[in-house]
Specification:
One of its GO terms (cellular component) is plasma membrane. The chain is an alpha/beta fold. The chain is 43% helix and 24% strand. It contains 13 helices and 13 strands. The strands form two sheets. A seven-stranded mixed beta sheet has the order 1-13-12-11-2-9-10, sandwiched between helices. A hairpin with a 2-residue loop joins strand 7 and strand 8 (157-165). Helix 4 (61-72) crosses helix 5 (78-89). It starts with a helix and ends with a helix. Bound molecules: adenosine-5'-diphosphate and magnesium ion. Magnesium ion binds at residues 38, 40-42, 236-238. Residues 38, 40-42, 236-238 line the site of magnesium ion.
Length: 292
């Protein structure tokens, strides 16, 4: 395309709230054959809320929430925000923990009053050798409801399961349909567990999804599709999406997402809506047609 037609295209896209950082991305957008979508914060609002607290022992829900909120106070993960906010809503103030550590793609750990606190997914509990049998069925039931269940252990003993739900953005279903109607294969990629991923994918009409992806493996997945001859678009909002956004043929960042994601992407969807994807592709097609 001529520099002039690209400039016109960039302007047109901007009107739709789609910020294009480089002209080449605009020209590649219409050639995308596979669009990879992150789940949390991309398909969903990314603002999960606590829905269930199931206690194993004699503690109350509020006592559990105090411990988990104290543990999560040091994390910036959307799941941590849900816990901390839920505690705040109940007037529970977190206590100061020591030895806090964030275990990427799995959860968090810390020490409080000489007790070792551990909170996260099944992978984390398995890795730490904590028996979760008691709550596996319950967790699966919560996941089938598209909620994300997390396990809480105190001194290597299972103490509770807490579930959060993250609403799907109101226009994600329509926006995904537009991509599919363009003949694009849409794939969902998430660090969340397989059952929850299955439930969310089903709700938005996606049959192709990969769950329990470790942060460092998102870019590998993009490379894999590219090696199969696909032109890959990647859409994400998180720090853990940044390498995949940079690796994709066209990276799309959610404008309300992290700065790292925005800096790694070619195109920013200022309105946060996935409709920006089909809009960008339409502008791309028009730009290329104009020069022929
Ligand atoms: P994604 O943002 O795609 O869901 P992440 O790699 O950030 O992927 O998280 C994957 C999973 O790891 C989460 O679904 C959750 O089970 C667990 N996890 C990550 N961070 C935390 C945290 N701060 N608290 C509890 N669980 C967490
Ligand atoms: Mg995300």
């Amino acid at each position: 395309a001529t520099p002039m037609s690209v400039m016109v295209g960039v302007g047109k896209a901007a009107e739709a709230g789609v910020l294009i950082r480089n002209g080449e991305a605009l020209q590649t957008a219409s050639k995308i054959t596979t669009m990879v979508l992150d789940k949390t914060g991309t398909i969903t609002e990314g603002a999960p809320k606590v829905t269930d607290i199931i206690v194993a022992g004699s503690q109350t829900e509020d006592e559990i929430l105090l411990l988990v909120a104290s543990l999560e106070a040091g994390s910036e993960h959307p799941l941590a925000m849900a816990i901390v906010e839920s505690a705040a809503d109940k007037g529970i103030s977190p206590k100061k923990v020591t030895d806090f550590a964030s275990l990427s793609g799995m959860g968090v750990e810390a020490t409080l009053q000489n007790k070792k606190l551990l909170f996260g997914n099944e992978k984390l509990m398995k890795q730490q050798g904590i028996a979760i049998d008691k709550f596996v069925d319950k967790a699966q039931q919560l996941a089938a409801e598209a909620k994300t269940p997390m396990y809480f252990a105190v001194d290597a003993e299972l103490a509770a399961v807490i579930a959060v739900a993250d609403p799907i953005k109101s226009d994600s279903i329509e926006a995904i349909k537009r991509l599919q109607n363009n003949g694009i294969r849409v794939v969902m990629l998430t660090g969340d567990n397989r059952m929850t991923a299955h439930a969310v994918a089903g709700k938005v009409g996606i049959t192709d999804f990969v769950a329990e992806v470790m942060p460092e493996d998102k870019a590998k997945k993009v490379a894999e599709y590219q090696a199969n001859g696909e032109i890959v678009g990647m859409t994400g909002d998180g720090i853990n999406d940044a390498p995949a956004l940079a690796h994709a043929n066209v990276g799309f960042a959610i404008g309300t997402g992290t700065d790292v994601a925005i800096e790694s992407a070619d195109i920013t969807l200022m309105r946060g809506s996935l409709h920006g994807l089909a809009d960008a592709i339409a502008v791309s097609k028009a730009t290329l047609t104009n020069i022929k």
